[in-house]
Specification:
14 strands; Nucleotidyltransferase, domain 5; Taq DNA Polymerase, Chain T, domain 4; alpha+beta; three-stranded antiparallel sheet; 20 helices; five-stranded mixed sheet
């Protein structure tokens, strides 16, 4: 059954519906404070909680010690069904834009607890706003769209995965990642020198700045300013267009080595230095705020904190609590493996068959190092035209023409603003479609959503791959995946743990990797529920979720 939560007239309503969306009882009136108890009383294996946005509803349940197994995130589902080829003829896809189509509003981060607040009395607490639209009506529209889709089963699985991802993101934010402040400070001191006040250059950066000024004969050089550095390099007779790492590495001059080291340490200071530590780590926990589907490609984003890419210099501060262990899952080279399968590029599939795909690209002779292979591959897929990624893309295209041809076709489709009524693609389902060369006739591989561009907003010129590629969404290919062995050579088919028979453990489909912090169990398999503690030494665990309907 579904239980639809809504904020109406300053309070809450919980409306029970069947799996088909029909009424299954009278709506129940609740208060905000009574929500966690209501959820705890009605949570069960057959229940899906339906709400407008998981990030708005779930934190209150988590804060009260509760947890739900399944939900329907209407905002995420609406966006998927709006742009899915399988639902292009549905009433939901053809309806005018509404509040469901609006970009997610990111909440401002609260001030750290150490900062005094002028008014902290409950009198000044603002109640959550009422919902703009009726979630019951939206749920029924989504159920109708899925029921009339050409591939309803695949869509249900995708919607369940996206909503499960929203639950995971909220749980990660609430539980936090164990973070040793003392270790972080020691790592910073080793790299930068003793801590200094904000705005003061640390000792090692100051020493490197002095070396740069001497070697470039520029006593007034400000190495924090790219424009200043560029002018100084040119005065030294170097032909350079930017201060990017890949361009500096090609130059021969005594100032280049200390300049690259300065840039590396400066990045550490500004991205994950003492200011970051003070703002983002509280009570031994880093609480990242992930935004599910926050990127136009459907990938996750982060609301500050650099949570999507913590640098190696500070990862040593992530230390499991006593009696706990960190379990890391990484779907290695996920995007290029999917590209190999979608394009039918057997050479690229072979490059990743049972090994690191980037190492396979190096073995093919396309590039010389694994780092170059990674930059080239991701640069090709995400539209890089300059920098290190853009520089190696032509080599990749020569080694794997079918894969790169698919990317180019998708970029051209998005770049020229094709929409679902594009007569150029009337022979296949949907607009902006891309048919893979060498694939079976009529097999649809991808399209860009109509919001990308249209008659009133023409897309970028043909050949500008960055916009088209970023806006292209992929559809599940039909038939057997020709590169499946390369896509997941080591993936355990239906792997289950002894303490959870029948449960398949997997990473989210929207990120490449994630990490769970779990208590050890005698069987060696993570238990679903561990001790929930609010003390700095505790953690609310984040588990993989069943996507069964």
């Amino acid at each position: 059954m579904h239980i639809v939560l809504a904020r109406v007239d300053g309070g809450l309503t919980a409306t029970p519906l069947t799996d088909a969306g029909t009424s299954d009882g009278e709506p129940v009136r609740l208060t905000e404070s009574g929500l966690p108890a209501f959820v705890a009383a009605h949570e069960g294996p057959g229940v899906r909680w339906v709400w407008s946005d998981t990030a708005r509803w779930y934190p209150a349940v988590l804060a009260a010690g509760g947890r739900v197994a399944r939900c329907v995130d209407l905002r995420l589902g609406h966006r998927l069904l709006r742009t899915a080829l399988a639902t292009r003829g549905s009433a939901l896809a053809q309806a005018p834009l509404s509040a469901w189509d609006a970009a997610v509003a990111l909440e401002a981060r609260p001030a750290p607890a150490t900062q005094a607040s002028l008014f902290d009395d409950d009198l000044f607490t603002v109640a959550p706003a009422d919902d703009d639209l009726d979630p019951v009506v939206e749920l029924r529209a989504q159920l109708d769209a899925v029921a009339g889709a050409s591939e309803p089963g695949a869509l249900r699985l995708l919607l369940a995965a996206e909503s499960a991802g929203a639950l995971v993101a909220a749980e990660i934010k609430y539980a936090g990642l164990p973070w040793r402040t003392d270790v972080h400070e020691r790592l910073l001191a080793d790299a930068l020198g003793p801590r200094v006040p904000y705005g003061v250059r640390p000792r090692k950066l100051e020493e490197l700045a002095a070396v740069l000024r001497q070697r470039l004969d520029d006593p007034d050089l400000n190495p924090d300013s790219p424009a200043d550095v560029l002018r100084s390099l040119r005065r030294a007779g170097l032909v350079v267009d930017s201060t990017r790492k890949w361009e500096l590495e090609r130059l021969e001059h005594p100032a280049i080595e200390p300049l690259l080291e300065y840039k590396r340490l400066y990045r550490l200071l500004t991205a994950n230095g003492w200011t970051w530590l003070d703002e983002w780590v509280q009570d031994g926990r880093f609480h990242p705020e992930y935004v599910v589907g926050g990127v136009v490609t459907g990938r996750w984003a982060a609301n500050g904190g650099g949570a999507l890419q913590l640098p190696k210099q500070v990862r040593g501060a992530v230390v499991a609590d006593p009696g706990w262990e960190l379990v890391v899952a990484d779907a290695a080279q996920l995007e290029p493996r999917v590209l190999a399968a979608m394009s039918g590029d057997t050479d690229m599939a072979a490059a990743g068959d049972g090994q690191d795909l980037y190492d396979g690209v190096v073995a093919s002779g396309a590039v010389q190092t694994r780092q170059q292979a990674k930059m080239a591959m991701l640069g090709a897929m995400y539209g890089a035209t300059q920098g290190e990624g853009g520089r190696f893309v032509p080599r990749l295209a020569r080694a794997f023409p079918r894969a790169l041809d698919l990317v180019e076709q998708a970029a051209r489709a998005g770049g020229t603003g094709r929409t679902r009524d594009d007569p150029a693609r009337s022979d296949v389902a949907g607009a902006g479609a891309v048919v893979v060369r060498g694939a079976e006739p009529g097999v649809l591989r991808g399209r860009h959503p109509p919001r990308c561009s249209g008659p009133s907003s023409p897309g970028p010129a043909a050949g500008d791959g960055s916009h088209g590629t970023s806006w292209c969404r992929a559809r599940r290919p039909s038939g057997r995946c020709p590169g499946w062995a390369a896509c997941a050579p080591d993936w355990p088919r239906g792997a289950t743990g002894p303490s959870r028979p029948g449960r398949t453990w997997s990473s989210s489909c929207t990120t490449n990797s994630w990490c769970t912090h779990r208590p050890r169990t005698p069987s060696g398999w993570p238990s679903r529920s561990g001790p929930r503690r609010s003390t700095p030494g505790g953690s609310c665990s984040v588990a993989s979720r069943s996507l069964s309907r």
